[in-house]
UniProtKB/TrEMBL annotation:
Name assigned to this protein: Murein biosynthesis integral membrane protein MurJ
Transmembrane segments: 56-82, 94-115, 135-154, 166-187, 193-212, 251-274, 280-298, 319-339, 359-377, 389-412, 418-436
Cell compartment(s), UniProt: Cell membrane
Record keywords, A-Z: Cell membrane, Cell shape, Membrane, Peptidoglycan synthesis, Transmembrane, Transmembrane helix
Source organism superkingdom: Bacteria
Species assigned in the record: Candidatus Yanofskybacteria bacterium RIFCSPHIGHO2_01_FULL_44_17
GO biological process terms on file: lipid translocation; peptidoglycan biosynthetic process; regulation of cell shape
Pfam families linked: MurJ (PF03023)
GO molecular function, one term: lipid-linked peptidoglycan transporter activity
Membrane topology: Multi-pass membrane protein
Statement: the UniProt record of this protein carries the keyword Transmembrane helix: yes
Entry keyword Transmembrane helix: yes
An example Gene Ontology CC term for this record: plasma membrane
Length: 442
């Protein structure tokens, strides 16, 4: 067993950078843990922290609709395809155009969101009092700066992935978390808005790290932007279904936040803390492994190498299954102990620890499924298919919302992670079957 695990972990997957990404992601989550410890002990499960967490919903939704997943899903396969066929100049024209287009589009989209934020706040947190909603609107409006910054940074990150350069890509989230931590002492001076200032500082550092790494690469920027370039238009076309599908996770937690705001004070906080712990193995293994193998899968697809594609996919899935399975077992049995160890104390009382631990134990069931979702989705994207994941996950969103709403009277806050785990696992099984059938036709 140990020898097989060693082979999976130190085989071909990690030769392409998964080890580096896993280590850097671990560093990011270590700093994220420090962030959560400070938040828990300084602010506790307070309404102010409820508001702060809720303020991220709309800006993060905007970011994820266009940039975080849609851009990656469309850009990397197209850019890698050109690069694999030695069309470097065309690849650089596409990259330069996207570097200009991404922040411009985000800025345009942010304008109506800024204007209608009071209406959106009523949807995000219907259970908040008037003064809490006023603070939510102000914080969310200021946080709209971060998606514009991330639009540039994530474009650079996708170029780094395509070149299989992972240092700047992996270091950037560490500095983002550092910026958020800086916001805690700023809150002592400027009040709740100090936390927002920390987020913006972190986003700027995120961008600076990736810009420094891309400067060392061989890319040559080719301005001005070429809006009519056929490959750029292809990227926009591929982004459309992903733009519809990417925010499903954010919409899910948008719905969860809305439902939690109607329950006891601190419900959003404990839900957020439980989700943060659960996302650690998802990022360490699911996102890191999938990101590291994405460029390789795209190259295999571009060259019509079905055998190589299946080998990369199979070996990654083996390692992913082992690591996420062990993680799920650990958090199910020891989740409350972990929460107590790191967050217990200060204003985060024992009742808050127990509530968070219970949610984490249920969220643990979603760790393997969510991790495999990243791998399977990127496999479809490598094949330039961004529609199939959408057709499966969009109905899943509706089912999660219905099931959570139905179970809340019985399970209270626990209904949210339970619904997420059950439906997500079903989606992964269905997508896997579709992917295997699709691969037989290559």
């Amino acid at each position: 067993m140990f020898s097989k695990l060693k082979t999976y972990l130190f085989g071909s997957i990690f030769r392409k950078g998964a080890t580096l990404l896993t280590v850097l992601t671990l560093g990011s989550y270590a700093l994220g843990l420090v962030r959560d410890i400070l938040f828990a002990r300084v602010f506790g499960a307070s309404r102010m922290l409820d508001v702060y967490n809720a303020a991220f919903i709309i800006p993060d939704l905007l970011l994820n609709i266009f940039v975080a997943g849609a851009l990656t899903a469309a850009f990397v396969p197209v850019f890698t395809h050109l690069y694999a066929r030695n069309e470097d100049a065309e690849a650089e024209k596409v990259a330069s155009t996207m570097l200009v287009a991404a922040p411009v589009i985000l800025a345009i989209l942010a304008i109506p969101v800024f204007i209608f934020m009071p209406r959106l706040a009523d949807i995000v947190a219907p259970g908040f009092a008037f003064e809490d909603k006023e603070l939510l609107v102000l914080m969310a409006r200021l946080l709209l700066l971060s998606p514009i910054i991330f639009a540039i940074s994530n474009t650079l990150g996708n170029i780094l992935i395509s070149y299989e350069r992972f240092w700047g890509y992996g270091l950037a989230p560490i500095f983002y978390n550092l910026g958020i931590i800086i916001g805690i002492p700023l809150a002592k001076v400027f009040g709740p808005l100090g936390l927002v200032e920390g987020v913006v500082i972190g986003a700027l550092m995120h961008l600076a790290i990736r810009w420094a790494d891309i400067a060392k690469s061989k890319i040559q920027w080719r301005f001005p932007a070429q809006w009519r370039h056929p490959e750029f238009r292809k990227i926009l076309k591929l982004m459309i279904p992903r733009m519809a599908g990417q925010p499903i996770e954010q919409i899910t937690f948008f719905i969860f936040t809305s439902l939690a705001s109607t329950l006891t004070v601190g419900s959003i906080v404990v839900l957020s803390f439980a989700r943060n712990f659960q996302s650690v193995p998802v990022s360490l293994f699911g996102i890191a492994f999938s990101t590291a193998v994405f460029a390789s899968l795209s190259k295999k697809a571009a060259l019509g190498d079905r055998v190589g594609f299946l080998y990369q996919l199979r070996e990654t899935a083996k390692a992913l299954g082992i690591m996420t399975g062990l993680s799920a077992i650990f958090f199910f049995f020891f989740g409350e102990w972990v929460v107590r160890l790191f967050l217990g104390g200060g204003r985060f009382v024992e009742a808050d620890v127990v509530r968070t631990g219970k949610l984490l134990a249920i969220f643990a069931f979603a760790i393997p499924a969510e991790s495999f979702m990243h791998l399977i989705a990127r496999s479809f994207y490598a094949l330039k298919d961004t529609w199939t994941p959408l057709f499966v996950t969009l109905p899943g969103l509706v089912l999660i919302a219905i099931l959570a709403k139905f179970l809340i009277p019985v399970m209270s806050l626990s209904a949210l992670p339970f619904s997420y785990s059950v439906i997500l696992t079903s989606e992964v099984i269905l997508l896997t079957l579709i992917l295997l059938k699709k691969l037989r036709r290559i």
